[in-house]
Design a protein that fits this description.
The complex is a heterodimer of chains A (about 100) and B (about 325). Chain A has about 100 residues and is of the alpha+beta class. Chain A has 2 helices and 3 strands; from the N terminus they run E-E-H-E-H. Chain A is about 20% helix and about 20% strand. Chain B has 14 helices and 2 strands. The chains are: A alpha+beta (about 100), B mainly alpha (about 325).
Chain lengths: ~100, ~325
């Protein structure tokens, strides 16, 4: 007999309204994608919190950590010319 | 040369990590699942979250007792929605606890073998409909005071679960107070029932905040790590002050002969709490400890075939594709 377990873990992302980005809301347990979507609906949208749900197996998510932060993001930190405020505009320039 | 070796000794490295961790806490940063954390921090947060999750789920039982006996359809629908919320809150919290690397299976096993606790308040019986009012108003009310404070707890997933829970809990407290208000506007028998529920639930509700600060073993370290943001006594007093006014407004008496408003502190002073009773119930000798646990174990076992079937179905889908 298969060992009793609480079913695999899924991460839940919800879009609150049309046009907004999907936001991570938490996780749920489910045996497959269809059950994951239904469980996510029951747990995270009892009061109209969303109009679209994504579910992703937790095991499929890769993440950086706070310890990686300095090293990982360092390459972009010294490129201030990526920001519009870096550039000097002539006096009187408009709509730019 | 020797000083370099000393600097890199394991104890020094550990102390540095601990200091860095405390500095992050002091800067009010949230700790996320994959961040480094002291083992004791992990254990404390896990214990608190698992206890909190179990409380939400066990808390469904005393209220579930009244679904089929709700006095009207409106009350029944509301009670069902509230109990469903409690189940949902348990699931938010289990998910948050699982981010620390302990599986749901292990959390439930600890509940069943008695290693993990849940709030003692749910070991008191719900004898009549007024108890449903008292639970929503007093028990959820006390829980909210605690949970509002925990929205600022230092462990990120726990704090986020609390924000979500607090949004939903205020309906719970209001539905309870509405039941009490309705009964206090009823006939003398109904008023008596409401007062009787008040008499039975008031003190256990105050005990929900835990022992006095001077007797609370974990408080100091938990406060330093900002797992707890305010002490048991501070939170208890906040609950007392706001609840007494609500009780008086609808004509309920607080079952405490020593209760007195303190003009100096601007707080209500209460009589002594019966901590013997508290420790009795925590120790497993409350009226319903055995019943609550038996019921949970049975429900869990009854669900086993569903989990097995779901797993088998998922496996089959994979082998088809």
């Amino acid at each position: 007999m298969e060992q009793d377990n609480q079913l695999p873990l899924w991460e839940v992302f919800i879009q609150k309204n049309n046009g907004l980005p999907f936001k991570h809301e938490g996780s749920i347990h489910a045996s497959d994608a269809a059950m994951a979507l239904q469980n996510a609906r029951d747990i995270y949208t009892r009061r109209g919190e969303g109009r679209t749900i994504w579910v992703v197996p937790s095991s499929a998510i890769a993440a950086t950590t706070v310890e990686d932060e300095a090293e990982f993001f360092d390459p972009s930190d010294d490129k201030i010319y990526r920001h519009p405020t870096f550039y000097v505009m002539p006096e009187g320039a408009k709509q730019i | 040369m020797s000083s370099t070796i000393e600097q890199n000794s394991p104890t020094t490295v550990m102390q540095e990590r601990l200091d860095q961790f405390q500095a992050r806490i002091d800067a009010d940063e949230k700790i996320e699942p994959k961040d480094w954390m002291p083992e004791e921090y992990r254990k404390t947060v896990l214990r608190q979250m698992s206890q909190h999750a179990h409380s939400e789920v066990i808390g469904m039982q005393p209220e579930g007792n009244w679904i089929l006996r709700a006095p009207c359809l409106r009350a029944k629908k509301i009670l069902l929605a509230k109990i469903q919320d409690e189940g949902g809150h348990g699931l938010y919290l289990y998910s948050a606890a699982e981010t620390l690397g302990t599986g749901r299976e292990a959390l439930i096993e600890s509940l069943h073998n008695g290693k993990a606790k849940y709030s003692s308040i749910f070991n008191y019986p719900t004898l009549n409909w007024a108890d449903i009012g008292a639970i929503g108003w007093l028990v959820d009310g006390a829980a909210i005071v605690n949970q509002v404070s925990l929205q600022r707890t230092s462990y990120g997933p726990y704090a986020r679960a609390m924000v979500r829970i607090c949004k939903e809990e205020s309906f719970h407290q209001r539905q309870g107070y509405e039941i009490m208000t309705t009964m206090m506007r009823g006939n003398s028998a109904q008023k008596e029932m409401a007062q009787d529920a008040m008499n039975r639930w008031w003190w256990p509700a105050l005990m929900m905040f835990g022992p006095h600060d001077k007797d609370s073993a974990h408080t100091q370290q938990s406060m330093q790590w900002r797992i707890k943001r305010e002490s048991n006594d501070v939170l208890r007093q906040r609950f007392i002050d706001k609840t007494i006014d609500q009780a008086h407004l609808i004509g309920l008496t607080i079952p405490d002969e020593q209760l007195k408003y303190n003009e100096d502190t601007k707080h209500w002073d209460i009589g002594p709490i019966n901590w013997d009773e508290f420790w009795q119930v925590v120790g497993g000798h409350g009226l319903c400890n055995e019943q609550r646990m038996k019921h949970h174990i049975r429900a869990h076992q009854d669900g086993q075939w569903v989990r097995e079937a779901a797993n088998a179905f998922a496996q089959k889908q994979i082998s088809f594709n």
